Known about the structure:
The chain is mainly alpha-helical. It is built from 20 helices and no strands. The termini are far apart.
Amino acid sequence: MGTLDWIVVAGYFVVMVGIGLWSRGRIKNIADFFTAGGKMPWWLSGISHHMSGYSAVMFVAFAAEAYRLGLTVYIWWSLTIGIGVGIGAFLWAPAWNRLRAKHDVKSPLEYLAIRYNVPTQQLMAWAGAGLKVVDIAAKWVAVALLLQGFAGVPIFWGIALVGVVTMVYSVLGGLWADALTDFGQFIIQGAAGLAMFFAVASHFGGINFMWTIWDKLPESHSDPLTGPYTLTFFMALFLIKTLEYNGGMWNLAQRYMAAPSGFAAKRSALLSAGLWLVWPLILFFPMWAAPLIVPGMDANAEQAYVEMGKAMLPAGMVGLVLAGFFSHTMAMVSSDANVITAVITRDILPRIWKGARAMTADAQLKLARITTFLFIGLSMTIALTADTKGFVLKVVIALVAATMGPIAIPLMLGLLPWFRKFGPTAALSSTIGGLSTWIFLYVEQQFLKDFVVSQALIVSTPLLVSLVLYLAIGFAKPEASPERDALIDSLKSDEPDVATVKA
């Protein structure tokens, strides 16, 4: 990287910190910190939802899979998310918003205490918070690997640099800072992605490279599903991503909660769905063409996009692409930190510390900022001490994808009227059964070296067990109550209810 590239990167970090400082003035209470007070425009909510859904992992782990296997990564990742979010625009996005508007909910898990019971809420809060801190650690490692590849910066300093900047604006500005930096990062990502796309198009002599490269690549690279990514894997991941990106990934539920109304939240979801279907194609085509430009990298494919950037882009543009990588990671991490802070301060601490229940509004806001600082710091510590080789893909697929289903199924299906009679017995059994299944399979695969336990099996089985338990026990042992009925009925429209249940 040259001087101009470093100037671009430094300028990016300065702008991110500046947004955090500016957003601090908009934060008056924890409602502003966690849900933007329900005042976020629908288009900003939609862009923020999209940007918060992926990170530099795409340019490390997913780029490696695109290099080695071709088209399949778009099919099982981007396509599943785009369709799933489109479905969720009608099923879940408005309901999340109405929880905030009608029940003063500030955390996605807050409603579970009434929908099921407190033990269910606590199990999901602790399990999800533990999962997310490891997930975020993988994001730090991914962006540090990119920085190391482009600029030779040691992984330790890469994690520290990006982590500290993210920590500053997240602690100061809450969800407003997250959303505004998401928008800035959307612009930067757009410029960086188009720069790489057109550089590759120029290399091949025109835009027609999009359909001519496939004849020069291995035949399997144009297969929708190939390698370890089977139809079973695709179907399991489609269900997982539908649940995850409609609120099972808690920070994305926040984007819908921050919109002014349920109708606005629905528009936000449709915008995000459209972006998921179209924009990743611009990002993936250079990755698919990479074997023709930087061949022989199958053994080190995680660095393929880095080598592409070095080979294809002029001075200044490399810095912009690197800033785009940062933007992905910082967008996801800051939003994750904000929602985990909401869960900790609203759902966990009041149950284990009586002092949290009697705090003033100013004290609650201070606690939220301290918790954000500590959570990001812990994730950075895990990243700094992890074995980085293969860490990113292992965490993102073997851990996050496989455990998201058991955590998300009771949370997400509990919002739908068809499951109104499903109570805490079904929810607890579903989560415990699914997570226990994953633990068993993961130990078999990683430590006992059972090669029968494939990637598809470890992703799909916990999900299937969790779903079957939830449905079977829910139908066999209905646990209806007036409070649950009132809660679910209140989520049908934006119209005010005669009486609402306070969550």
